[in-house]
Amino acid sequence: MNGLELSRAYFETYGRPMLEEQFSGVLPYLAAGLAGSGSECFGFDDKVSEDHDFEPGFCIFLPVEDVVDRRTAFALERAYAKLPREFMGYTRPLMQPVGGARRGVLRTAEFFAEKCGSPDGTLTPEQWLAVPEQALAEAVNGELYFDRFGEVTRIRAALAAYPEDVRRKKLAGHLLLMAQAGQYNYRRCLAHGETGAAQLAVFEFVKSAAAAAFLLARTYQPYYKWSFRALRALPSPLSPDAELFEYLLTTDNDPETAEEKYDVIEGIAADVIDELIGQDLTKAICGDLEKHAYSVNDGIADAGLRNMHILAAV
């Protein structure tokens, strides 16, 4: 049983009855579910994940105090704290995790303000570019068990994916970095005898190629330690490239391997270009990712975003 399943079972066993029996008057204004920080909110948890911040628990989301007042919020906090601490072999710890409460009673506006800087999910193009992608992933991950008020559902829908112009700006930047690091600098670094710099070029290529894969799939990339797990699960033709990324990162740069690695880099570039063409994101017709980067940037409708430096979003 993973964390999402554990949370749902705990909520249905103890949470829903508590809310219906003790808080029926404010139930129409509440939402409950599991979302935010932690591998369990993405469904990425395993036995190793259980060594910290893993517990049977859930989130209760409250609207502003004008709708659900502070006294009711305090009563909800006390009721949540009194729920059984042990469930299916797991125990809720007495101490809060580092960074503050992840479960229990949360104000909706505060939760989303912490994740994306906006209490209601409204962001300008510049704000979209400034919010860390992993934080956006945490704002919309997990599962809602119910949302009578509809506020949490509405905000999650508003934040579910990058606006198209923002997606294009970020994609253009990563395509340019892929071109510079993989198609150009990797071989040049090796020619200079700089094997360490060559491997850094590989890292930069893989990092931007992974980012491009998530952008092309219209899905946020989570925190880096879960990127490969998430990439393999992407509903995208690029998800098999995760194994090629690992090969590039974990192999040496002796002459024979380096030549093979360059072929892999070009193969990944070709896969990305196929996706760009398939989504009608580029007008370029070539294998040069740099030309595709500028073509993607040229397709941005917002003049302010389009005219920003091509690497402004990365």
Number of alpha- plus pi-helical segments: 13
If you average the pLDDT, what whole number results? 94
Strand content: 5-15%
**Which stretches are poorly predicted, pLDDT < 50 over at least 5 residues?**
none
How many structural domains can be distinguished in the coordinates?
Answer: 2
Read across the widest sheet, the strand sequence of neighbours is 5-2-1-6
Compressed to H and E, one letter per element, the order equals HEEHEEEHHHEHHHHHHHH
What is the molecular shape?
elongated
Outline the fold blueprint.
Elements: H1 3-22, E1 31-34, E2 59-62, H2 70-81, E3 86-87, E4 90-91, E5 104-107, H3 108-116, H4 125-130, H5 133-140, E6 143-147, H6 151-158, H7 164-191, H8 195-216, H9 227-232, H10 241-250, H11 255-278, H12 289-298, H13 303-307
Parallel strand pairs: 2-5
Antiparallel strand pairs: 1-2, 1-6, 3-4
Helix pairs in contact: 3-5, 7-8, 7-11, 7-12, 8-10, 8-11, 10-11
Question: What would you say about this model in short?
Answer:
The protein has 314 residues and is α+β, with helices and mostly antiparallel strands. 54% of the residues lie in helices and 7% in strands. The chain is built from 13 helices and 6 strands.
Write a structural description.
This protein has helices at residues 3-22, 70-81, 108-116, 125-130, 133-140, 151-158, 164-191, 195-216, 227-232, 241-250, 255-278, 289-298, 303-307, and strands spanning 31-34, 59-62, 86-87, 90-91, 104-107, 143-147. By secondary structure, the chain is α+β, with helices and mostly antiparallel strands. The protein has two domains: 3-158, no CATH class; 164-307. The strands form two sheets. Strands 5-2-1-6 form a four-stranded mixed beta sheet, sandwiched between helices. A two-stranded antiparallel ribbon has the order 3-4. A hairpin with a 2-residue loop joins strand 3 and strand 4. It is elongated, with a radius of gyration of 23 Å. The mean pLDDT is 94.
